[in-house]
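Hey, I was hoping to borrow your eyes for a little while. A protein chain has come my way and I'm curious about its shape. Take your time with it, there's no hurry, and the full record follows here:
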Amino acid sequence: MTRALIVIDVQESFRARPEWEEINNPKIAEQVNRLVRLARDAGDLVVWVLHSEPGSGGVFDPALGHVRLMDELERQDDEPLIRKTSHNAFTTTNLQQQLTEHGVRELTVCGIRAEQCVETTTRVGSDLGYQVTFVTDATATNPITRNGVTLSAEEIVQRTEFALADRFATIATVDGLERAAADQAR
């Protein structure tokens, strides 16, 4: 096993926020489940990551019960589930150790927020020497307003793709990865 799918923050905490109404990919779990099935079929490791802010009193505080995978996700009991307290999935977890133990050299990443935790994990993973694939349509985000200027979710995702492509990651879609797997199986 040299590859792993890293599913980042596809958790109920986001649906508990009012901003969920503006998310660009409310059915992200469907895309993630397709990636999970693809990874399992290839014999790849699937790692689930949850963002946690203990003691914060917000939706990421485990005491409130929202820090759990979205109900429709298809996690198997033997797949690692790690909790992070930083924006990337490496710094405050043993993710790198788990990947090393499994001989992983290639990562496929997806999850919620494309430009925040997923992008940051992609960049750190690349810096650590992993070959990373960022699956755009298996990410989600919200519009962001700063200094009176709003970027749409689509603009944010596009900016993320531009920032990552050919430097930190290969940009892919679920359909494209499924086609590539089908072609390889022939």
Observations:
- The radius of gyration is 16 Å.
- The chain has six helices and eight strands.
- The mean pLDDT is 96.
